[in-house]
Amino acid sequence: MSDVSAHPSLSGYEVPIDSWTQPFWDATATRKLVLPRCADCDRFRWPPGPFCPGCHSQRVEWVPAGDGQIYSFTIITKGDGDQHQVFVPALIEFPEAGGLRLVAAIVETPLAAVRIGARVELSWSHAANATVPVFKIVTL
Amino acid sequence: MKHESAIAGVGATPYYFRGQSAPQTLYEMICKAILAAVEDAGLTIRDVDGLAFYSMGFDSGLIAESLGIPELTFASTVSGTGGGSAGVLDLAAMAVETGRAKTVICVGACQQLQIRYGTAFSHMPVTPEKAWERAAGLTGPGQVFALIARRHMHTYGTRREAFAEVVISSRLYAATRESAIRRRPLSIDEYMAAPMLADPLCRLDFTLETDGAVAFVVTSGERARDLKRRPVYIAASAHGGTCEWGRAFHWLNMPDPIFTTAGSEPIAARLYAAAGIGPKEIDVALIYDHFSPLVIMQLEDYGFCHRGEGGAFVESGAIRINGSIPVNPHGGHLSEAYIIGMTHIREAVEQLRGEAVNQIEGAQFALVTGGPAPIPMSGAILRN
Known about the structure:
heterodimer, A: six-stranded antiparallel sheet, 1 helix, 8 strands, globular, B: alpha+beta, Peroxisomal Thiolase, Chain A, domain 1, ten-stranded mixed sheet, 12 strands
């Protein structure tokens, strides 16, 4: 299979942001991927929200996500023949962030390389108002 | 049980392929189903004093105005979406058992004129906590369940042949059922040749998209015994769910091993405890089948086989009419029609009245499940 995964079409997508998700998108604007950890009990939480579900603290530290790997993925084909494109929405797991999973697209990657457990590296795509994290497979 | 409620009447419109129910309106179909259910029970609309909904519900005032329901003393909705389909019985039973109402109508309906449910996410306003799924290119629930299905395959070795068997068996049942939309037998080769919509899910793994309405009359068991039809008792009903399942496909951070379930284990435990029976006593299972892999995961959740063995279990023929647990003898959402779980309750009633098209001989207990979805999820055990 020679197909290579495409970037999702996000140019018309206005990412909705609230006060609890703002730091995530502020960081991606500077091309950094950070995840929310409770500043009191160190538990990661997702999505970014007003309370730690463990201790109910509202204090959050935003820490680098660390290395990610594919937890699961799907393949969506759009269009026919020469015009078709393949998209690979995936669930990326971050072991250094307590196993937190982020749903994001795998881009610019041959389908043959997409598998559960594959290590990914960060890349970027662009929505109307935000920089969106996407991932590529690390190939040695 | 002394205070058990019962389903005393069932009514439904015909089932239509998506959009084909026009020029009828949605509320026209809802009212037709309610009138038919009341007639089936041998009651009149003046007896109705309660309405129970799920999946965002309907306009109680409009229904009361349209049908001239004199007074409602109960009108409530199970929160969430299709997860609450069987929970509508829980709500109605609570109303009846607490004396809030005597005759509660449960109704579900759908009409897809403009918006297809399969692309539902792209028609809903995105909220900040759901921003990532849209950014990942996900536009419908089937694509997200594909993530869960693939992980189940990876963890347990589940094969596409198992998904195929769920679809093929539903089609075998539908062949004899006139209300079913897809009645032509399906071969494994045809299944494998179907286009992938969200790998590993092909088009045939997705529910039908149909229009129609189905309604039930719930009243006390004692009163139901004096009415026209054989009562079908609500032996147990439950809705709810745990924080570890939460928003399910909108969250995707369910801890292992819960990620590769249908999220219904807590509901199953409560139902079996309340009914005083276990999976071995269930004669027929009406399993919410919006996507075929989730049937397999629910069979595991409800204890018909061990965790991770659902694929081999269905491949063994267990869910066919002579199998250990016949599943969806009406053809389910995959082959009969999709009215957000209501057709499953209808089939349970027909089975327990002994008048089903594909009757399971001597059926005494039927399990009905609500959709694997954000909580609340739901389920019910019915008996005759």
